[in-house]
Design goal:
Helix content: 25-40%
Distance between the termini: 26 Å
Radius of gyration: 18 Å
Shape: elongated
Largest sheet: 7 strands, mixed
């Protein structure tokens, strides 16, 4: 049996407040016009994902970043859970999120500036299990293998597709971060584009495991 890793659950409640103020900077004093996501949506999505991943990597208790390359649509349930707390969002990017119903893949050329590994949910489920593992222990064994591969403080991150406001100044993305079976949580994160940078301004938890 593989040696048991010291699992290091990622507490989303401690993680997300530090996301606020983290941004993708193009240069000091950059006051270039905000591009519309409709004209270059792919580039804007990469910037949003990069801002979130760099903020996660900045946490002192997070080691390697492991990202699921599948990008599901934001679930209507997640939107409903936090709707009241995000009622002041400008331009309502939630509508754009709900319009994205097909699963896509994380851009192959995404370069957030920090090392990132990719692991799909199917690959996680296919991790080898020690002989004799019963059904109740399968998930724990998979997490042990996960941490054996990526390190005791590795975080597995699942991102949704990005929803943009009509004027291209705000974006919303669902972020799920986990370090063990009972060490994860999800939140809907709102970013605002300010002087050429995407900045996390609001977040609302959707689930904790």
């Amino acid at each position: 049996m593989a040696k048991r890793s010291s699992l290091h659950p990622v507490a989303l409640a401690a993680l997300l407040p530090v996301l606020a103020g983290c941004a993708v900077r193009r240069g000091a004093g950059d006051a270039s016009p905000r591009p519309s996501p409709s004209s270059d949506r792919g580039a804007q999505e990469r910037e949003v994902y990069g801002a979130v991943l760099r903020a996660v990597a900045a946490q002192p208790d997070v080691g390697a970043l492991v990202v699921d390359p599948e990008l599901p649509a934001v679930g209507p349930g997640d939107i409903a859970v936090v709707s009241g707390r995000l009622s002041q969002v400008r331009g309502d990017p939630r509508a754009d999120s709900l319009a994205r119903t097909e699963t896509r893949r994380l851009p192959a050329d995404l370069d957030p500036g920090v090392p990132v590994s990719r692991l799909s949910a199917a690959e996680f489920r296919a991790m080898p299990l020690p002989a004799g593992t019963d059904a109740n222990g399968e998930n724990t064994a998979r997490w042990q293998e996960f941490h054996r591969r990526y390190g005791a403080s590795a975080a597995w991150i699942r991102l949704s597709q990005v929803g943009f406001s009509g004027d291209g100044t705000e974006a919303v993305v669902h972020v799920w971060t986990a370090g063990s079976s009972l060490g994860g949580g999800g939140a809907l994160v709102v970013l605002r584009r300010e002087r050429g940078a995407w900045v996390v301004r609001r977040r609302a938890a959707t689930a904790i495991s």
